[in-house]
Amino acid sequence: MVIAVSGITSAQVAILQIQVVEGEGSVHFPGVRTNRSLTVEVTDETGKPVPGAAVSFHLPEDGPGGTFVNGLRTDIAITDARGRASVRAFQTNRLPGRFQLRIVASKEQARAGTVSFQYVGETVGGGTAAAPRAATATSATPHSNRKWYAIAAAVAGGAVAGVLASRGSSASAVGPPVTPPPPALTIGVPSISVGKP
Known about the structure:
Layout lengths: L1 E4 L2 E4 L4 E7 L4 E2 L4 E2 L3 E7 L9 E5 L7 E3 L5 E5 L5 E4 L2 E3 L4 E11 L2 E11 L1 E3 L3 E3 L2 H6 L3 H26 L23 E4 L3
Parallel strand pairs: 4-13
Antiparallel strand pairs: 1-2, 3-6, 5-11, 6-10, 7-9, 7-12, 8-11, 12-13, 13-16, 14-15
């Protein structure tokens, strides 16, 4: 079966793939309307963009999150010629923390889903938003890795100094300090693809 989609003739879509391409891990001010875009790209099994797919965005029912500008926790967008769809704004609630924004794409009989991790920040002095403490621990950057190395080295050095002091400087009984590796925590982008049965 061949159908026309936006003037382009293509076979029926059997498998969809969806990926967040903009806005993953955004930190939003609590209790305000955010204007940060969340954009996804929908492709078929060969990696070609799928125009005209319906993409629904679902905010959580409780906990950190909010509502879209339509007043609901669900909003729908249609993919453009590049296979991209965006939700541009939503009203955050005042509960700080991480939440999952569920995303489902569908075209004909094919469907795909994924989640995007977003954050409602904590308000700190001066009215700025900071990522919740749990969020900062999971987003390791090169600077935070250096910090963990420094902390681990200081802890290990203190432990060696304490052992030496307790043994009366018998350094031969103590091996070299062992520095534990820093925690490697990252937020991935889960993706679920469902094909036509």
